[in-house]
Amino acid sequence: MQAGSRTIHTKRIAVGLLLAIALLQQTALAGPEDDRKAFVAFYQSRFPDIPLQEFANGIYAIDADARQQWQDIEEFPPYEFAIDQGTALWAERFANGSTYSDCFASPTAGIRQLFPRWDADHERVETLELAINECRLDNDLPDLEYGSDELASITAYLAFEARGRLVDVQIPDDDPGALAAYEAGKQFYYTKRGQLNFACYDCHVLSVSQYVRADRLGPSLGHPTHFPVYRSKLGGMISLQQRFSGCVRDVRAKPFALQSEEFRNLEYFLNYMSNGLELNGPGARK
Amino acid sequence: MQTSKRILLKGIAALGALAVLPRAALAAVWPTAAFSSTVAKQAMTELFGTDQTTPSDQIVLRIPEIAENGAVVPVSISTTIENVESISIVVPKNPRPLVANFEMLPGTLADVSCRIKMGETSDVMAVVKTDAGLFSTAKEVKVTIGGCGG
Amino acid sequence: MAPVRASRFNAWRILLSLALPALSACATDYDRKLEEAEQLRVTAAEAGAEWLRTESLLQQARQAASDGDEESALAYIEAARFQAEAAIEQAEREAELWQHRVIR
Amino acid sequence: MASNIKIKATLSGDVAQIKSLMMHPMETGTRKDADTGELVPAHHITQLIFENNGTPVMIANFSTAVSKNPYFSFSFRGAKAGDTLKVRWVDNLGASEEFETALG
User: Fold this and answer.
1) Shared-domain flag, residues A58 and A148
2) Facing A69 at nearest CB: one of B68, B113, B146
3) Helix (H, G, I), strand (E, B) or coil at A75
4) Hey, are the CB atoms on A75 and D69 less than 8 Å from each other?
5) Cβ–Cβ under 8 Å, residues D59 and B23
6) Residue D21: what are its φ and ψ, rounded to 5°?
7) Cα C101 to Cα A39, A152, A163, A195, B61, distances in angstroms
8) Which of A16, A104, A145, B31 is 20 to 30 A from residue A162's alpha carbon, by CA?
C-alpha cells in the first residue's frame, strides 16, 4: 500500500513537473512574433471572409453601411486641409535655416513607418510625435503641444506621404529594454481598468464588431495604420494616443497623459501586432 | 472684408432690380425666411409658394439608413426629370428643416452631393422644382447616440 | 475665490470648535477622512489604476466643505474612498489575471 | 497660406464634375461652449457660388445644418479644358472667400 501510493505520488510529481516545464517552455517561446501570429490568427478565424489587408480599414472592413458613408467622406475628406497645413509646416525653415527634413535621415515618404521605434539612447519607445518634438528641441524651438492641430497636421502629412508602406515595428533583441516596453504595452492591452472594468481586449477582441450603444467595436488588428484621423464628431484631427485617451475615459478610468510611458508602450505593442499591414493614414472616422 | 462688402452691395442691387435681372442674379439673395422657419411645410411655402409636392420615382436620393454620425450625413440627389430649376433638402425633424437649396442654372446637371447635420431620426426629403411643379422623394434616416466612435 | 471660501470655512470651524466641541470632532474627522481618501487615490494612481471620477469626487468634497455642507462633504469622501479602494483591488487582481487573456 | 477652399474638377467630354471642400465652422447657434456654457453664435456659410469663365453655373444656399467643413459636389455641361472655374462663399457674418482653378 505504502509503496504503491508513493509511486502514484511520484508519478504525479513527475507529470506536474513535465507540465510545468512545458508551460515554461511555452512562455519562454511566446515572444512578440508568436503573439502577433496568434493575434492575426484570431481575427482571421473570427472574420474568415475579410482579407488581411482590409483590417487596415478598421470597422469599415466589417460594417457595409458605415463603409459606404466612410467612402462618401473619403471622396473629399476634411483631413486634406490638415495634410496641406502639414506640408506647409514641414517646408518651413527654422530661424537657424534648418527644416524638419534635416532631423530625419529618410525622405518624407520613409519617415512615418520608422515609428514607434525603440530609442536605445533614451531607453524609451519613441513615437513620431516625440521625434518631431525632439527635432524642434534640437533646433531650439519649443515643443508642439501633444494633441495640437499643428502636430496632427505634420503627422497627417507624413502619414499621407507613407501611404502604402508597411507597418514594420522592430523590437531589437540586443536591448532587453525594448522587449520590456513591448511587454508593458501588452500588459496594458490585456489589463482591465476603470469603473467599468474593461481591458482593451474586452471590447476589441472579445466583443469585436458588437454594438456599444450605436457604435460597432473595431478590431485592434489594423487600428494604428490610419492615424491621425479626422473625427466627424470633433470636426478635427486626433492622434492614436488621443484615441487611447478616449477609450480609457470611456471605461471610466483616468486617462494617462498623451505621450506618457504607458501610452507609448501600448502604441509599440499595437503597432507590432499590425506589422505587415499597409499604412493608410490619415483617416476619417465618425 | 472688402470682398464681402462688394457682395453685400451686389445683393442689395439684386433686390432692387428683381424684375429685370436674370435668374442667376435673383438667386443671389439667400432665402432668409425659408431658412429661418421651424416647420417644414412653412419653410417650403416660403421657398416655393406651396408645400404640396408630387412623389416621384425619378428622383434618386442616396442617403444612409443609419447615420454613422448625425453631424455628418452624406447625401446625394439626382433626377432624370427635365427642366430642373432647383433641388432642395428638407429634414422635417431638424430645428430648421430647410437644410440646403441648390439653384440649377443653364448647363447645370441635376446631380448634387453634400453632407448634412441631423439632430434626430427623421425623414430626409429631396424636393425637385421644375417648370412643371414640385416633385419629391423621402427616406428615413436613423440617427443614434454613439458609444465611443471611430 | 477659493482662498476666501477656505478661510470662511476655517472661521466657521473655529466658531464651532468653541461653541460645540462635539461637532468640532466631526471637522477633524473630515480632515482625517479626506486625507485617507486622498492617500488611497494616490496609491491607485501609482498603480496606474485610478478611476475617472475619484479626483473630482474629492474636489467636490472640498467644495462642499468650504460651502459648510459637511454631510455632503463626507458623502463625497466616502464615494471617492470606495472608488480608490476598488481601483487598488482591481490593480492587484489584474497584476496576475491579465496573462490569462493573452491570445495564444 | 494654403487656401481654405479646395476644388477637385474632372472633365469628361463637355461635362465638368466639381467637388469642393471648404474650411468653415458652420456653427448652428444652438451649441454651448464646453468651457463657458455660453451659446456659440451662429456662424455659417450662406451661399456658395460657382462661375465658369464668369458665367454662374451653380448657386448653393446653405443653412446651419450643412456639416462643418462643408463638402459640395455638382456637375455642369458646356465646360472645356482651360476654362476658369471660380468659387466664392459668403457667410452670415459677412466674411467671404474665393478660389479659382483651371479645368482639365
Assistant:
1) no
2) B68
3) coil
4) no
5) no
6) -140, 130
7) 12, 33, 33, 19, 47
8) A145
pLDDT of residue C11: 52
In chain A, what residues touch D8 (CB-CB under 8 Å)?
76
What ipTM does the predicted assembly reach?
Answer: 0.83
Number of domains within chain C: 1
pLDDT of residue A20: 52
Average pLDDT in chain A:
92
Asked whether residue A70 falls in the same domain as residue A175, the answer is yes
- The DSSP code for D39 is B
Reference B91, options B144, B34, B138; nearest CA is: B138
Judge whether B27 is closer than 8 Å to chain D, CB to CB: yes
User: What does the DSSP assignment read for B118-149?
Assistant: -SSSEEEEEEEEETTEEEEEEEEEEE---SS-
Q: What is the pLDDT of residue D60?
A: 97
Do the beta carbons of residue D54 and residue D73 sit within 8 Å? no
Check residue C51 and report its DSSP letter.
B
| Residues of chain A contacting C58 with CB distance shorter than 8 Å | none
Question: Of B61, B66, B72, which to mutate for an interface test with A (greatest number of A Cβ within 10 Å)?
Answer: B72
Q: Which sequence spans correspond to the domains of chain B?
A: 1-30, 31-143
Other CB atoms within 10 A of residue A178 CB: 22
Distances (CA, A) of A190 to A184, A186, A245, B92, C63: 10, 6, 16, 46, 37
Q: In this model, does residue A117 exceed pLDDT 90? A: yes
Where a domain ends, among A161, A192, A208?
A161
User: Could you tell me which CATH number the domain at B31-143 has?
Assistant: 2.60.40.2470
Residue A96 has pLDDT above 90, yes or no: yes
Provide the 3-class DSSP secondary structure of residue B65: coil
Assess whether A203 carries a catalytic annotation.
no
Domain that holds residue D42: 5-28+37-102
Selection from D51, D49, D48, D47 nearest residue D78 by Cα: D51
Write out the residue range of the structural domain in which residue A104 sits.
79-161
D104 touches chain A (CB under 8 A): no
Q: What's the structural domain count of chain A?
A: 2
Beta strand A229-231 pairing with A283-285: parallel
Out of A142, A161, A180, pick the residue that ends a domain. Answer: A161
Distance separating alpha carbons of residues A171 and A269, to the nearest angstrom: 10
What is the rounded CA–CA span in Å between residue D27 and residue A3?
A: 87
- Interface contact B22, partner D, CB < 8 A: no
Secondary structure (DSSP) of B89-111:
EE-TTSSS-EEEEEEE-TTEEEE
Which among B65, B71, B73 is the nearest to A65, CB-wise? Answer: B65
CATH code (residue D59): 2.60.40.10
